[in-house]
């Protein structure tokens, strides 16, 4: 994975942090991510734009629970836990995406070298 | 050019020849009436006034009496500047902190290192043993210590700027509707 010292001393083509993937996303995979709630509902609930990700429905659940249970919001620990778990899994997916991008870049390099060796 | 020359002449008139057009400063005696301090002093209760310093001594007899009141020689006695810092007849004594005084001298009050009836400086409460050690030669002077502290902080900031990001590297945050996202399920 993205080890910073490996990045400092290696000549491999490491992707930059927070960049979009450059290869075909569905190459080799099938399960597409689906949002749990439509954008219209998010707009109606006035969810901030930076929270309208794939965990927005869980965020809304926990906000609703907070409204219902206030001021005894510790009763919502289940909802909060589910939301944090969802965000964690989202980050895991992003890390996997980074690793996939890195490996595909190396694969491109290997293919180029093989072509050059065949040509020589 | 002529305007600049005129301005220079104006400044000459104002400062070099020391001749001002408008006299906008007034003397302290004009601003503050003579009986002001007496007036404010009489605002206190009689039980409080007996602990206050007297008014600033004006005559030679008052000066000597004030010096005797604080147990000082009339030549040693020097009250605060009445214009800048009016403290009545209270003497402007040198600040010598607890640490700067001799620990082996038989003090009447060893906890404060003072003698009985001794006139204390105005900021004496800041010079006690658990407070400021004024007048002590430090192994590292205060200015140098400040400089060292700030330079250590500066080096820390430079290191923060130069050090690589050791967080887990991630791709961009995924939002629905902004590109194709998947769950890494194999075909």
UniProtKB/TrEMBL annotation, chain A:
InterPro entries membership: NDUB7
Keywords: Disulfide bond, Electron transport, Membrane, Mitochondrion, Mitochondrion inner membrane, Respiratory chain, Transport
GO cellular component, one term: mitochondrial inner membrane
Membrane-protein topology: Peripheral membrane protein
Pfam families from the UniProt entry: NDUF_B7
Cellular localization per UniProt: Mitochondrion inner membrane; Mitochondrion intermembrane space
Highest taxon above the source species: Eukaryota
Main location: mitochondrion
DNA repair listed as a keyword: no
Known role: Accessory subunit of the mitochondrial membrane respiratory chain NADH dehydrogenase (Complex I), that is believed not to be involved in catalysis. Complex I functions in the transfer of electrons from NADH to the respiratory chain. The immediate electron acceptor for the enzyme is believed to be ubiquinone.
Family, per entry: Belongs to the complex I NDUFB7 subunit family.
Listed name of the protein: NADH dehydrogenase [ubiquinone] 1 beta subcomplex subunit 7
TrEMBL record, chain B:
TM region positions: 147-164
One Pfam family matching this protein: NDUF_B8
Keyword Iron-sulfur on entry: no
UniProt entry keywords in alphabetical sequence: Membrane, Transmembrane, Transmembrane helix
InterPro entries tied to this protein: NDUFB8
Gene Ontology CC terms, in alphabetical order: mitochondrion
Annotated protein name in UniProt: NADH dehydrogenase [ubiquinone] 1 beta subcomplex subunit 8, mitochondrial
Phylogenetic placement of the source organism: Eukaryota, Metazoa, Ecdysozoa, Arthropoda, Hexapoda
């Amino acid at each position: 994975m993205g080890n910073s010292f490996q990045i400092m001393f290696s000549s491999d083509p490491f992707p930059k942090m927070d960049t979009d993937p450059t290869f075909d996303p569905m190459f080799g995979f099938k399960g597409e991510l689906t949002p749990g709630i439509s954008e219209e509902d998010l707009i109606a609930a006035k969810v901030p734009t930076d929270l309208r990700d794939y965990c927005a429905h869980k965020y809304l659940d926990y906000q609703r629970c907070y409204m219902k249970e206030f001021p005894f919001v510790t009763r919502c620990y289940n909802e909060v836990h589910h939301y944090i778990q969802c965000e964690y899994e989202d980050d895991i997916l992003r890390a996997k995406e980074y690793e996939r991008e890195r490996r595909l870049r190396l694969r491109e390099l290997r293919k180029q070298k093989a072509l050059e060796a065949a040509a020589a | 050019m002529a305007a600049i020359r005129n301005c220079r002449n104006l400044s000459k008139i104002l400062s070099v020849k020391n001749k001002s057009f408008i006299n906008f400063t007034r003397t302290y005696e004009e601003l503050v009436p003579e009986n002001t301090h007496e007036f404010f002093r009489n605002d206190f209760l009689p039980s409080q006034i007996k602990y206050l310093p007297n008014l600033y001594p004006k005559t030679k007899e008052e000066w000597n009496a004030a010096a005797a009141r604080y147990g000082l020689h009339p030549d040693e006695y020097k009250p605060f500047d009445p214009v800048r810092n009016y403290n009545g007849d209270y003497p402007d004594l040198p600040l010598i902190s607890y640490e700067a005084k001799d620990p082996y001298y038989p003090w009447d009050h060893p906890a404060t290192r003072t003698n009985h009836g001794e006139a204390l400086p105005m900021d004496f409460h800041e010079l006690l043993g658990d407070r400021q050690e004024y007048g002590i030669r430090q192994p590292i002077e205060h200015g140098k210590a400040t400089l060292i502290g700030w330079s250590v902080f500066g080096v820390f900031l430079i290191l923060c700027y130069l050090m690589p990001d050791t967080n887990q590297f991630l791709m961009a945050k995924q939002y629905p509707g902004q590109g194709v996202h998947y769950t890494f399920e194999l075909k």
